[in-house]
Amino acid sequence: MADGMQVTERRAASPQSVTRVIRLLEALCASSEPVSLADLSRRLATPKSSLAALLRGLAEEGFVIGSDAMWRLGPGAFGLGSALTEARRRLQSSDLIRDGMRRLSAASGETVLLAVGEPQGESMTYVDLVESAHVVRYLVAIGDRRPFYATAGGRALLATCSAEAVESYLKRLNAQRLAPTTLVDRAGLRAAIEAAREQGYAQTVDQAAQGVTGTAAVIRDAAGQVVGALVIAAPTARAQDRLAELAQLVVAEAAQISRSLGFR
């Protein structure tokens, strides 16, 4: 009998069960009204029998309340939420972003940058970086500025703006060639920004400088506001055969950092 109880406890504490508890609480958080078991089952693509067992356990701890076959958050959940808010206040967002930059640099083997745009401006500024361990690597200093139009970070940031804001930027733009292949015509830049909007990332090859490839995706906070652009900067000679891989890495890490900041 004791062995059977141990097996049950191990199953209840499985990673899948923990994930389901988190998703269950998130679903209840997202609803302004009590939710039925059937509705939760549909939203989470999880059998009602599995959710019912989790809900009973959560109800015993006061995290949820069930009434008339409907479920809502209980006082325990709000207490946990307050504790998490306080913990997040202590753990600065910059630390979470920096951790993600280190992960991305290790995964890609390249220099990783954080760029922020100037409100209603023409350029972005690099505010943090994690350098590649390669002897040949992209070098930049914190505080360096680059134009939006010629950089992956700049195009990723522009892609989050309204179409009207992008048009306003392009109309006042006096683009200069920073490398032989720098894109400077408005139609081409408009298409590149729209492609970044559709793909969820921007990628430039030999645009801001000859021999440099950039790949960028934006980071968002809990309010959905853009925090900045996460950028992988690599020598083109090393990046040219792995453009798709770099894009996948930066998109995944930007999403993970955004989630750690509370973006859903």
Automatic annotation (TrEMBL):
Cited SMART domains: HTH_ICLR
Domain IclR-ED: 76-263
Keyword Thylakoid attached: no
Domain HTH iclR-type: 15-75
Pfam families per the UniProt record, alphabetical: HTH_IclR, IclR_C
Top-level taxon in the UniProt lineage: Bacteria
InterPro entries xref list: GAF-like_dom_sf (IPR029016), HTH_MetabolicPath_Reg (IPR050707), Tscrpt_reg_IclR_C (IPR014757), Tscrpt_reg_IclR_N (IPR005471), WH-like_DNA-bd_sf (IPR036388), WH_DNA-bd_sf (IPR036390)
Keywords assigned: DNA-binding, Transcription, Transcription regulation
Gene3D superfamilies cross-referenced by the UniProt entry: 3.30.450.40, Winged helix-like DNA-binding domain superfamily/Winged helix DNA-binding domain
Record-given protein name: IclR family transcriptional regulator
